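Appendix B. Raw example, untouched.
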Amino acid sequence: MFANKIKDYRESLEMTQKEFSKKIKSSRATVGHLESGLREPSTEVLSNLSILSGKSINWWIDIDDKKEYAELNDLNLLLNYMIEAKRIKQNETIAVEDMKYIQKMLYEEINKKFKRKETEK
């Protein structure tokens, strides 16, 4: 369940809700609502959690439990976030750290496609 995952992750970092909220660019109240299950995560929160933790968005939301997110594309969300946050700009070099993360997400998407093809056989 998402609420347990986010709380466990925050506690593993030994952060208060306020400190953690700054890391995921959200409010302390939002973190409290997410941890108590009163609120579903936005795509922005999911993207920020994914970048901070190095875990995929699919891991955070447990695709099996959240059917409404079934078509979520991690790479697309990541690119949208990076463009909106101005970490990627048109016709400019992408920072090495950001490029490594994009590459990781790209490989995950490629593996998903191969797994889908195998199950269709």
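End of appendix B.
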